[in-house]
Structure formats: structure tokens, C-alpha cells
From TrEMBL:
Residues 92-177 form the GHMP kinase N-terminal domain. Mg(2+) binds at residues 127, 159. The keyword Magnesium applies. It comes from Tessaracoccus lubricantis. Substrate binds at residues 34-37, 223. This is Galactokinase.
Length: 380
């Protein structure tokens, strides 16, 4: 948990008064369902107990005072200055103000002083945590009655249209909608959800989340290239999105580009794995998730081609050290892996991966055991 006393003190220093409250939103880990969200598919994430927390207060003017404890930085601007394409860390908060105003909500000035213990650039959705926490702050400060799904959509608008990252709804939905001790099954087309129990501790399991310390970014070309390839394939196949592929072999026959074939195969089979994981979670036999995690990683490595050496080594080592199943999680090109382990094994497996990294000349990874947590809300 971030230092709330330090957060409140920094608010006093920046603003000269007390915050009206503290709001939070968690990072998330995606249990399974990678790069399916923008293909109208299925995902199954859960929220982390690591979160972004914002001390907030309403202003009488049109000024935004945005502060980050970790970066020791402060940005001041007016709501009239907000414009898509803005860069820097503050864009994730300012973009939410812009998105709310674009949607017709009368949001004006605000003090937003932020702290976060969600690792940056690790594929755990640190940006969505910031955005969803900001939505929670502004909805309460300005009395906006916006349901949770629409809050997630507004946060995504900030990410897509203001920051310029072409992500789907997965991250913001997980940060907003997840419940403690549950995974969130989300149909990214219909936006129907199901809270799925994940009683890992009760069944003698735990989930290792290991940050390879290989940063990635969604505002780079590779993520956008993957998304464009999927959209092009859907157009060739004459369907709205790859979620609508009903016969993979038939679809492959219609595609001439070998790279596009691999991208389509990943999305179609990953959607199938999410639906299988949903059935497994409903049945309560969480050990049956393990082979699905392994298959997902192989597909991301071989067909979607979004893993890197550190990630692959971490997954391979986790398996050799006794993990039941393991895969990369997040958008790819670095970031984190997850591994389903027997209770008490996660730290040992993390140490084994650290040793393997040292032997390969990689930097030391960081890891923790994840517990499914509650989505965005107000602390005090």
C-alpha cells in the first residue's frame, strides 16, 4: 500500500489545504485472453492489490493541479488547454478530464495528487489504474452518476484518443469492475460480465507475478501493427472482427499472408482458451488452468510474436522449477509473466528465475504473489 500520509502531506504542500478524499483504482493481471479485446473477443483478468491512489479536491477555477509523488513532479494547466496528443505522465489524468468534458459532463478544475505502487511498464496496467482512479475522483467531486462500465469506457477514451495508445477495454474494465477473490470474465463485444470465483488459497495454489524488468509501451509501433493486421484480416474474411471466425481452417485458406495467418490463429485459439478457462473456473478445479496458460504463452511466442528473451526464459524456468503453468501477461514485448504454483512455492520459483536471469546476463527481476482484489473506489 502506498504511503497515504505522504500523499496527504504532498497535497497540502501543492494546494494549501486538505483533500476532499482519497480514491483508488488497482492494476490488473490478465489470467488469460491476450490481444483478444480489440478483436471483440473474451478476456479473464483480475485486479491486483497494487493500486494508484489520488488525493483529490475540487477547484473553483478551471485549473488542473496534477502531482506525482513517485516522479516528484507537478503540472499545472487549464481545462481549455487540454488537447489530444499531449505527452508525459500527466496526460493519463488530464486525458480523463478531457474525456469527461467531451462526453458533455461539466467538469472544471481539480487538484489531483497521485501515488501508485503498480509497476510501470510491466504489463500490469499502471496507466489504466491512474485513469480509473481519476474517473472515480471526478465523478464524486462533481456528482456525476456514471455506471461502472461507462466509467471504464471513459477511461479508455482517455487512453485511446488523448494519450494515443490503441488499447481495448480490458485494462479499464478490470480496474473498475473486478471484485475481490474473483476474476472478471468480459465479453468485449456485448460488455456482458461474470464474476468468477478464484479460490486459489482454498485449493492450495498461489499466483506468482514476476516483472522481468523489460519495459514495454503500448504507444509504440508493434502493438498498433498487430491490431491493424487483425483488422485487415477481418476485412478480407468479410466479418466484423476475428471473434466471428467459426472455422479456423477455412479462414486460413482465404488468407495469403503467412504472418496474417499466424495473427489470426492466435486470436481465434486464445478466445477458445478463455472460454475453456471460464468453464474451469466455474467448475472450481483451478489446476486445470495450467495447460491453458502454457498454450497461451506458446501462441503469443510463436503466432503473435510478442514475447522477448527475458519473458521466454522466465516462463521456461518457472516450469522447470515446478510451476503448474506459466505465461506472459499483458500486451507483450516485455513486462510480466504469471505462474500458477502450489502454495508456498511462488517465492522459490521467483528465486530460480532470478538465478537464471543472472546466468544469462539479464538484470534481476522482481516478483510478488497476487491476490484478486477489489476494483476502483473511494478509500476515505
Amino acid at each position: 500500500m502506498p504511503d497515504l500520509d505522504a500523499l496527504t502531506q504532498r497535497y497540502r504542500e501543492a494546494v494549501g489545504g486538505e483533500p476532499e478524499g482519497l480514491w483508488y483504482a488497482p492494476g490488473r493481471v490478465n489470467l488469460i485472453g491476450e490481444h483478444t479485446d480489440y478483436n471483440d473477443g473474451f478476456v479473464l483478468p483480475f485486479a491486483l492489490d497494487k493500486k494508484a491512489i489520488i488525493a483529490g479536491g475540487r477547484r473553483d477555477d478551471d485549473q488542473l493541479v496534477i502531482v506525482s509523488l513517485e516522479l516528484d513532479d507537478e503540472v499545472r494547466l487549464t481545462v481549455e488547454e487540454l488537447a489530444p496528443g499531449s505527452e508525459g505522465w500527466s496526460a493519463y489524468l488530464a486525458g480523463v478530464v478531457w474525456a469527461l468534458r467531451e462526453a458533455g459532463h461539466d467538469v472544471r478544475g481539480a487538484n489531483l495528487v497521485m501515488t501508485s505502487d503498480v509497476p510501470l511498464g510491466a504489463g500490469l496496467s499502471s496507466s489504466a489504474a491512474i485513469e480509473c482512479a481519476t474517473v472515480a475522483v471526478l465523478c464524486d467531486l462533481y456528482g456525476l452518476d456514471i455506471d461502472p462500465v461507462d466509467r471504464a469506457k471513459l477511461a479508455r477514451v482517455a487512453e485511446n484518443a488523448y494519450v494515443g495508445a490503441p488499447t481495448g477495454l480490458l485494462d479499464q474494465a478490470a480496474s473498475t469492475l473486478c471484485e475481490a477473490d474473483h476474476g472478471l470474465f468480459l465479453d468485449c463485444r456485448t460488455l456482458e460480465t461474470e464474476q468468477v470465483p478464484l479460490p486459489m488459497a482454498e485449493q492450495g495454489y498461489e499466483m506468482l507475478v514476476l516483472d522481468t524488468k523489460t519495459p514495454h509501451s503500448h504507444v509504440d509501433g508493434e502493438y498498433g501493427t498487430r491490431r491493424a493486421s487483425c483488422e485487415q484480416a477481418a476485412a478480407i474474411l468479410g466479418i466484423p472482427a476475428l471473434r466471428d471466425v467459426t472455422d479456423l481452417d477455412e479462414a486460413i485458406e482465404k488468407l495469403d499472408d503467412p504472418t496474417m495467418v499466424k495473427r489470426v490463429r492466435h486470436v481465434v485459439t486464445e478466445n477458445e482458451r478463455v472460454l475453456k478457462a471460464l468453464e474451469v473456473a466455474r467448475s472450481g478445479d483451478l489446476a486445470a488452468l495450467a495447460p491453458l496458460l502454457d498454450e497461451s504463452h506458446a501462441s503469443m511466442r510463436d503466432d503473435y510474436e510478442i514475447t522477448v528473451d527475458t519473458v521466454d526464459l522466465a516462463v521456461e524456468t518457472a516450469k522447470k522449477a515446478g510451476a503448474l503453468g506459466a505465461r506472459m501477461t499483458g500486451g507483450g514485448f516485455g513486462g510480466c509473466i504469471i505462474a500458477l504454483t502450489h502454495q508456498g512455492d511462488a517465492d522459490r520459483i521467483g528465486l530460480a528465475i532470478a538465478d537464471a536471469f543472472a546466468g544469462a546476463g539479464f538484470g534481476r527481476p522482481e516478483w510478488f504473489t497476487a491476490t484478486p482484489a477489489q476494483g476502483a473506489g473511494r478509500l476515505v
